[in-house]
Predict the 3D structure of the following.
Amino acid sequence: MIRVGLIGAGFIGRNHFNQYQELTDRAKIVALCDAVEARRTGDWSGIGGNIGDAQGSRRDLGDIRPVADWREIVGDPGIDMVDICVPTGMHPEMTVAALNAGKHVLCEKPMALTAEACAPVLAAAEKAATKCMIAQCIRFWPEYVFLKQVFDDKRFGALKALHLRRQAATPTYTLNNWALDPALSGGAILDLHVHDTDFALFLLGKPKSVCAQMYKQLNGSVDRVSALWHYNPDLIVHIEGCWDWPAAFGFNMGFSAIFEKAAVLFDISSGKPLTVLRSDGGTETPAMLPKDGYFREIEYFLDCIAKNQTPKISTPRESRDAVAMATAEQRSAELGQPVEIQ
Ligand SMILES: NC(=O)c1ccc[n+]([C@@H]2O[C@H](COP(=O)([O-])OP(=O)(O)OC[C@H]3O[C@@H](n4cnc5c(N)ncnc54)[C@H](O)[C@@H]3O)[C@@H](O)[C@H]2O)c1
Protein backbone atom coordinates (compact mmCIF):
# COMPACT_ATOMS: atom_id res chain seq x y z
CA MET A 1 0.00 0.00 0.00
CA ILE A 2 1.47 3.33 -1.08
CA ARG A 3 1.01 5.97 1.64
CA VAL A 4 0.23 9.34 0.05
CA GLY A 5 0.59 12.86 1.41
CA LEU A 6 -1.55 15.22 -0.66
CA ILE A 7 -0.56 18.90 -0.65
CA GLY A 8 -3.26 21.31 -1.84
CA ALA A 9 -6.97 20.68 -1.35
CA GLY A 10 -8.25 23.07 -3.99
CA PHE A 11 -9.83 22.29 -7.34
CA ILE A 12 -7.32 19.77 -8.63
CA GLY A 13 -6.36 18.48 -5.17
CA ARG A 14 -9.99 17.55 -4.60
CA ASN A 15 -10.03 15.84 -7.98
CA HIS A 16 -6.91 13.80 -7.11
CA PHE A 17 -8.44 12.99 -3.71
CA ASN A 18 -11.48 11.53 -5.48
CA GLN A 19 -9.30 9.42 -7.78
CA TYR A 20 -7.49 7.84 -4.82
CA GLN A 21 -10.88 6.76 -3.43
CA GLU A 22 -11.12 4.50 -6.49
CA LEU A 23 -7.58 3.19 -6.08
CA THR A 24 -7.79 2.01 -2.48
CA ASP A 25 -6.25 -1.34 -3.38
CA ARG A 26 -3.02 0.47 -4.21
CA ALA A 27 -2.85 3.71 -2.27
CA LYS A 28 -4.10 5.45 0.83
CA ILE A 29 -4.04 9.16 1.56
CA VAL A 30 -2.65 9.41 5.08
CA ALA A 31 -2.25 13.20 5.33
CA LEU A 32 -3.85 16.17 3.63
CA CYS A 33 -2.09 19.52 3.69
CA ASP A 34 -3.59 22.86 2.83
CA ALA A 35 -2.73 26.34 3.98
CA VAL A 36 -6.45 26.93 4.58
CA GLU A 37 -7.75 25.13 7.68
CA ALA A 38 -11.25 24.55 6.32
CA ARG A 39 -9.85 22.87 3.22
CA ARG A 40 -7.43 20.55 5.01
CA THR A 41 -10.26 19.44 7.31
CA GLY A 42 -12.67 18.63 4.48
CA ASP A 43 -14.81 21.73 4.00
CA TRP A 44 -14.61 21.89 0.22
CA SER A 45 -17.54 24.17 -0.38
CA GLY A 46 -16.71 27.03 -2.69
CA ILE A 47 -14.01 25.18 -4.63
CA GLY A 48 -14.48 25.61 -8.38
CA GLY A 49 -12.71 24.89 -11.63
CA ASN A 50 -13.03 24.56 -15.38
CA ILE A 51 -13.69 20.86 -15.81
CA GLY A 52 -15.37 18.07 -13.90
CA ASP A 53 -17.07 18.38 -10.53
CA ALA A 54 -17.69 22.12 -10.33
CA GLN A 55 -19.28 22.14 -6.87
CA GLY A 56 -17.33 21.47 -3.73
CA SER A 57 -18.92 19.88 -0.68
CA ARG A 58 -18.16 18.79 2.84
CA ARG A 59 -16.12 15.59 3.15
CA ASP A 60 -15.56 13.30 6.08
CA LEU A 61 -11.82 12.74 5.96
CA GLY A 62 -11.89 9.89 8.47
CA ASP A 63 -8.41 9.08 9.72
CA ILE A 64 -6.63 11.34 7.20
CA ARG A 65 -4.39 13.70 9.16
CA PRO A 66 -4.86 17.41 8.44
CA VAL A 67 -1.53 19.21 8.07
CA ALA A 68 -0.91 22.96 7.91
CA ASP A 69 2.75 23.01 6.86
CA TRP A 70 3.77 21.12 3.72
CA ARG A 71 7.24 20.49 5.16
CA GLU A 72 5.65 18.14 7.68
CA ILE A 73 4.40 16.01 4.76
CA VAL A 74 7.80 15.98 3.10
CA GLY A 75 9.56 15.03 6.36
CA ASP A 76 7.09 12.33 7.42
CA PRO A 77 8.67 8.84 7.33
CA GLY A 78 5.16 7.39 7.19
CA ILE A 79 4.60 8.87 3.73
CA ASP A 80 5.92 7.20 0.55
CA MET A 81 4.54 9.52 -2.11
CA VAL A 82 3.78 13.23 -2.20
CA ASP A 83 1.10 14.54 -4.55
CA ILE A 84 1.52 18.28 -5.14
CA CYS A 85 -1.60 20.27 -6.13
CA VAL A 86 -0.72 23.85 -5.18
CA PRO A 87 -0.31 26.98 -7.33
CA THR A 88 2.38 26.57 -9.97
CA GLY A 89 5.02 28.93 -8.56
CA MET A 90 5.40 26.57 -5.56
CA HIS A 91 5.88 23.37 -7.60
CA PRO A 92 9.69 23.47 -7.87
CA GLU A 93 10.46 24.03 -4.18
CA MET A 94 8.02 21.36 -3.00
CA THR A 95 9.01 18.82 -5.67
CA VAL A 96 12.73 19.18 -5.04
CA ALA A 97 12.28 19.00 -1.25
CA ALA A 98 10.10 15.88 -1.50
CA LEU A 99 12.49 14.13 -3.90
CA ASN A 100 15.48 15.01 -1.72
CA ALA A 101 13.57 13.55 1.24
CA GLY A 102 13.26 10.25 -0.64
CA LYS A 103 9.58 10.51 -1.61
CA HIS A 104 7.97 9.57 -4.90
CA VAL A 105 6.45 12.74 -6.37
CA LEU A 106 3.48 13.37 -8.57
CA CYS A 107 3.26 17.12 -9.17
CA GLU A 108 0.60 19.00 -11.08
CA LYS A 109 1.49 20.67 -14.37
CA PRO A 110 3.28 22.78 -15.34
CA MET A 111 6.59 21.73 -13.78
CA ALA A 112 7.50 25.38 -13.17
CA LEU A 113 6.90 28.86 -14.52
CA THR A 114 10.02 28.98 -16.72
CA ALA A 115 12.41 26.48 -18.28
CA GLU A 116 15.13 27.85 -15.95
CA ALA A 117 12.95 27.15 -12.91
CA CYS A 118 12.46 23.60 -14.22
CA ALA A 119 16.23 22.92 -14.12
CA PRO A 120 16.53 22.08 -10.39
CA VAL A 121 13.40 19.92 -10.58
CA LEU A 122 14.77 17.97 -13.51
CA ALA A 123 18.14 17.57 -11.78
CA ALA A 124 16.50 16.33 -8.56
CA ALA A 125 14.19 13.97 -10.49
CA GLU A 126 17.04 12.48 -12.52
CA LYS A 127 19.19 12.02 -9.40
CA ALA A 128 16.45 10.54 -7.23
CA ALA A 129 16.06 6.84 -6.59
CA THR A 130 12.32 7.47 -6.34
CA LYS A 131 9.83 8.15 -9.16
CA CYS A 132 8.79 11.59 -10.31
CA MET A 133 6.12 12.54 -12.79
CA ILE A 134 4.48 15.83 -13.69
CA ALA A 135 0.74 15.23 -14.03
CA GLN A 136 0.37 15.93 -17.76
CA CYS A 137 -3.08 14.38 -17.79
CA ILE A 138 -3.70 14.85 -21.51
CA ARG A 139 -1.15 12.15 -22.34
CA PHE A 140 -3.54 9.82 -20.47
CA TRP A 141 -6.85 11.27 -21.67
CA PRO A 142 -8.70 8.57 -23.66
CA GLU A 143 -9.48 10.69 -26.75
CA TYR A 144 -5.89 11.91 -26.93
CA VAL A 145 -4.61 8.37 -26.36
CA PHE A 146 -6.73 7.35 -29.36
CA LEU A 147 -5.24 10.16 -31.45
CA LYS A 148 -1.74 9.04 -30.55
CA GLN A 149 -2.61 5.43 -31.39
CA VAL A 150 -3.97 6.22 -34.87
CA PHE A 151 -1.06 8.56 -35.54
CA ASP A 152 1.45 5.86 -34.55
CA ASP A 153 -0.21 2.93 -36.34
CA LYS A 154 -0.98 5.05 -39.44
CA ARG A 155 -4.37 3.37 -39.92
CA PHE A 156 -5.68 6.59 -41.49
CA GLY A 157 -2.46 7.32 -43.37
CA ALA A 158 -0.18 10.26 -42.66
CA LEU A 159 -1.26 13.25 -40.57
CA LYS A 160 -1.67 16.33 -42.75
CA ALA A 161 -3.06 18.94 -40.36
CA LEU A 162 -3.64 19.20 -36.61
CA HIS A 163 -5.47 21.82 -34.58
CA LEU A 164 -5.15 21.44 -30.82
CA ARG A 165 -7.38 23.81 -28.85
CA ARG A 166 -7.91 24.65 -25.20
CA GLN A 167 -10.37 27.46 -24.78
CA ALA A 168 -11.87 28.83 -21.61
CA ALA A 169 -13.70 31.61 -19.89
CA THR A 170 -11.50 33.77 -17.71
CA PRO A 171 -10.78 31.72 -14.56
CA THR A 172 -12.21 33.36 -11.47
CA TYR A 173 -12.37 30.30 -9.24
CA THR A 174 -8.83 29.75 -7.94
CA LEU A 175 -8.14 30.67 -4.31
CA ASN A 176 -7.65 34.44 -4.09
CA ASN A 177 -7.58 34.44 -7.90
CA TRP A 178 -3.95 33.30 -8.01
CA ALA A 179 -4.43 32.07 -11.61
CA LEU A 180 -4.88 35.65 -12.73
CA ASP A 181 -1.51 36.68 -11.27
CA PRO A 182 1.04 35.87 -13.98
CA ALA A 183 3.79 35.70 -11.34
CA LEU A 184 1.97 32.73 -9.79
CA SER A 185 0.37 31.00 -12.79
CA GLY A 186 2.27 32.15 -15.88
CA GLY A 187 -1.04 33.11 -17.52
CA ALA A 188 -3.05 31.02 -19.96
CA ILE A 189 0.05 30.06 -21.94
CA LEU A 190 1.51 28.13 -19.00
CA ASP A 191 -1.54 27.23 -17.01
CA LEU A 192 -3.73 25.99 -19.84
CA HIS A 193 -1.95 25.90 -23.18
CA VAL A 194 1.00 23.92 -21.74
CA HIS A 195 -1.23 20.82 -21.86
CA ASP A 196 -1.18 21.11 -25.65
CA THR A 197 2.50 22.01 -26.02
CA ASP A 198 3.12 18.86 -24.01
CA PHE A 199 0.77 16.76 -26.12
CA ALA A 200 2.20 18.07 -29.41
CA LEU A 201 5.67 17.06 -28.19
CA PHE A 202 4.32 13.63 -27.20
CA LEU A 203 2.76 13.13 -30.62
CA LEU A 204 5.20 14.78 -32.97
CA GLY A 205 8.41 15.57 -31.09
CA LYS A 206 10.09 18.96 -31.29
CA PRO A 207 9.34 21.15 -34.31
CA LYS A 208 12.04 22.93 -36.30
CA SER A 209 10.54 26.31 -35.41
CA VAL A 210 7.45 27.97 -33.96
CA CYS A 211 5.66 31.13 -34.97
CA ALA A 212 3.13 32.57 -32.54
CA GLN A 213 0.88 35.48 -31.87
CA MET A 214 -0.57 36.30 -28.48
CA TYR A 215 -2.13 39.04 -26.50
CA LYS A 216 -2.07 40.05 -22.89
CA GLN A 217 -4.87 41.77 -21.11
CA LEU A 218 -5.44 40.51 -17.56
CA ASN A 219 -2.70 41.78 -15.24
CA GLY A 220 -0.13 41.40 -18.02
CA SER A 221 -0.59 37.64 -18.42
CA VAL A 222 -0.82 35.94 -21.81
CA ASP A 223 -4.54 35.36 -22.26
CA ARG A 224 -4.51 34.06 -25.81
CA VAL A 225 -1.84 32.34 -27.86
CA SER A 226 -2.06 30.92 -31.34
CA ALA A 227 1.00 29.08 -32.58
CA LEU A 228 2.10 27.34 -35.75
CA TRP A 229 4.66 24.58 -35.24
CA HIS A 230 6.76 23.86 -38.31
CA TYR A 231 7.91 20.29 -38.90
CA ASN A 232 7.88 19.87 -42.66
CA PRO A 233 5.95 21.42 -45.54
CA ASP A 234 3.45 18.52 -45.57
CA LEU A 235 2.17 19.02 -42.01
CA ILE A 236 0.29 22.01 -40.60
CA VAL A 237 0.15 22.18 -36.80
CA HIS A 238 -1.84 24.94 -35.14
CA ILE A 239 -2.14 25.12 -31.35
CA GLU A 240 -4.52 27.53 -29.70
CA GLY A 241 -4.86 28.31 -26.00
CA CYS A 242 -6.94 31.05 -24.43
CA TRP A 243 -8.92 32.04 -21.38
CA ASP A 244 -10.38 35.24 -22.71
CA TRP A 245 -13.90 33.96 -23.39
CA PRO A 246 -16.93 35.41 -21.61
CA ALA A 247 -18.15 33.36 -18.61
CA ALA A 248 -20.99 31.78 -20.60
CA PHE A 249 -18.45 29.94 -22.78
CA GLY A 250 -17.24 27.66 -19.99
CA PHE A 251 -14.46 25.39 -21.13
CA ASN A 252 -13.48 23.39 -24.17
CA MET A 253 -10.57 21.17 -25.01
CA GLY A 254 -10.38 19.38 -28.28
CA PHE A 255 -8.70 18.77 -31.58
CA SER A 256 -9.22 18.29 -35.29
CA ALA A 257 -6.74 15.94 -36.92
CA ILE A 258 -6.81 15.60 -40.69
CA PHE A 259 -5.21 12.39 -41.94
CA GLU A 260 -4.93 11.18 -45.54
CA LYS A 261 -7.91 8.82 -45.15
CA ALA A 262 -9.97 10.31 -42.30
CA ALA A 263 -10.49 13.27 -40.01
CA VAL A 264 -10.67 12.80 -36.23
CA LEU A 265 -12.73 15.32 -34.32
CA PHE A 266 -13.13 15.89 -30.58
CA ASP A 267 -14.46 18.78 -28.54
CA ILE A 268 -15.32 18.04 -24.93
CA SER A 269 -17.78 20.95 -24.75
CA SER A 270 -19.87 19.52 -27.58
CA GLY A 271 -20.89 16.57 -25.39
CA LYS A 272 -20.39 14.39 -28.47
CA PRO A 273 -18.04 11.44 -28.58
CA LEU A 274 -14.81 11.54 -30.56
CA THR A 275 -15.81 11.06 -34.17
CA VAL A 276 -13.90 9.67 -37.13
CA LEU A 277 -15.06 11.02 -40.49
CA ARG A 278 -13.72 8.69 -43.13
CA SER A 279 -12.79 10.02 -46.55
CA ASP A 280 -14.86 7.22 -48.10
CA GLY A 281 -17.99 8.70 -46.49
CA GLY A 282 -18.37 6.58 -43.33
CA THR A 283 -18.54 7.97 -39.79
CA GLU A 284 -17.44 6.14 -36.63
CA THR A 285 -17.49 6.81 -32.91
CA PRO A 286 -14.88 4.34 -31.64
CA ALA A 287 -14.98 3.05 -28.06
CA MET A 288 -12.65 4.97 -25.74
CA LEU A 289 -10.68 3.68 -22.78
CA PRO A 290 -12.60 3.86 -19.48
CA LYS A 291 -12.14 6.71 -16.95
CA ASP A 292 -10.53 10.07 -17.61
CA GLY A 293 -6.96 11.24 -17.81
CA TYR A 294 -6.84 12.25 -14.14
CA PHE A 295 -7.65 8.72 -12.98
CA ARG A 296 -5.44 7.12 -15.59
CA GLU A 297 -2.35 9.25 -14.81
CA ILE A 298 -2.58 8.50 -11.07
CA GLU A 299 -3.24 4.80 -11.67
CA TYR A 300 -0.23 4.69 -14.00
CA PHE A 301 2.06 6.47 -11.53
CA LEU A 302 1.02 4.17 -8.67
CA ASP A 303 1.68 1.17 -10.92
CA CYS A 304 5.14 2.50 -11.77
CA ILE A 305 5.93 2.79 -8.07
CA ALA A 306 4.54 -0.66 -7.29
CA LYS A 307 6.50 -2.27 -10.15
CA ASN A 308 9.59 -0.14 -9.57
CA GLN A 309 9.47 1.13 -13.15
CA THR A 310 10.47 4.60 -14.28
CA PRO A 311 7.41 6.38 -15.72
CA LYS A 312 7.89 6.42 -19.49
CA ILE A 313 4.62 7.95 -20.75
CA SER A 314 5.49 11.34 -19.25
CA THR A 315 9.07 12.07 -18.18
CA PRO A 316 10.35 15.09 -16.22
CA ARG A 317 12.53 16.05 -19.20
CA GLU A 318 9.48 16.13 -21.48
CA SER A 319 7.55 18.20 -18.94
CA ARG A 320 10.44 20.66 -18.88
CA ASP A 321 10.34 20.76 -22.69
CA ALA A 322 6.61 21.53 -22.64
CA VAL A 323 7.36 24.62 -20.56
CA ALA A 324 10.28 25.54 -22.84
CA MET A 325 8.01 25.30 -25.91
CA ALA A 326 5.47 27.66 -24.34
CA THR A 327 8.33 30.05 -23.58
CA ALA A 328 9.56 29.79 -27.17
CA GLU A 329 6.08 30.65 -28.44
CA GLN A 330 5.98 33.67 -26.17
CA ARG A 331 9.39 34.77 -27.49
CA SER A 332 8.19 34.37 -31.07
CA ALA A 333 5.10 36.46 -30.35
CA GLU A 334 7.18 39.17 -28.68
CA LEU A 335 9.69 39.25 -31.55
CA GLY A 336 7.00 39.03 -34.22
CA GLN A 337 8.93 36.33 -36.05
CA PRO A 338 9.49 32.57 -36.01
CA VAL A 339 11.84 31.13 -33.41
CA GLU A 340 14.04 28.12 -34.11
CA ILE A 341 13.85 25.21 -31.68
CA GLN A 342 17.08 23.51 -30.62
N1 LIG B 1 -4.32 18.97 -14.79
C1 LIG B 1 -5.32 19.84 -14.85
O1 LIG B 1 -6.22 19.71 -15.67
C2 LIG B 1 -5.33 20.98 -13.88
C3 LIG B 1 -6.54 21.65 -13.63
C4 LIG B 1 -6.53 22.68 -12.70
C5 LIG B 1 -5.35 23.04 -12.07
N2 LIG B 1 -4.20 22.39 -12.34
C6 LIG B 1 -2.93 22.78 -11.68
O2 LIG B 1 -3.04 22.45 -10.29
C7 LIG B 1 -2.42 23.44 -9.49
C8 LIG B 1 -3.44 23.96 -8.48
O3 LIG B 1 -4.53 24.56 -9.16
P1 LIG B 1 -6.01 24.59 -8.53
O4 LIG B 1 -6.91 24.95 -9.64
O5 LIG B 1 -6.26 23.35 -7.76
O6 LIG B 1 -5.89 25.83 -7.53
P2 LIG B 1 -6.82 26.13 -6.26
O7 LIG B 1 -6.66 27.57 -5.95
O8 LIG B 1 -8.20 25.62 -6.47
O9 LIG B 1 -6.17 25.25 -5.11
C9 LIG B 1 -4.85 25.46 -4.65
C10 LIG B 1 -4.80 25.02 -3.19
O10 LIG B 1 -3.44 25.08 -2.74
C11 LIG B 1 -3.46 25.55 -1.40
N3 LIG B 1 -2.16 26.11 -1.07
C12 LIG B 1 -1.61 27.25 -1.54
N4 LIG B 1 -0.40 27.43 -0.99
C13 LIG B 1 -0.19 26.39 -0.16
C14 LIG B 1 0.88 26.03 0.70
N5 LIG B 1 2.00 26.76 0.80
N6 LIG B 1 0.76 24.90 1.43
C15 LIG B 1 -0.37 24.15 1.34
N7 LIG B 1 -1.41 24.46 0.55
C16 LIG B 1 -1.32 25.55 -0.20
C17 LIG B 1 -4.57 26.58 -1.39
O11 LIG B 1 -5.01 26.87 -0.06
C18 LIG B 1 -5.62 25.93 -2.26
O12 LIG B 1 -6.54 25.17 -1.51
C19 LIG B 1 -1.88 24.49 -10.47
O13 LIG B 1 -0.52 24.27 -10.71
C20 LIG B 1 -2.69 24.28 -11.73
O14 LIG B 1 -1.97 24.63 -12.91
C21 LIG B 1 -4.18 21.36 -13.21
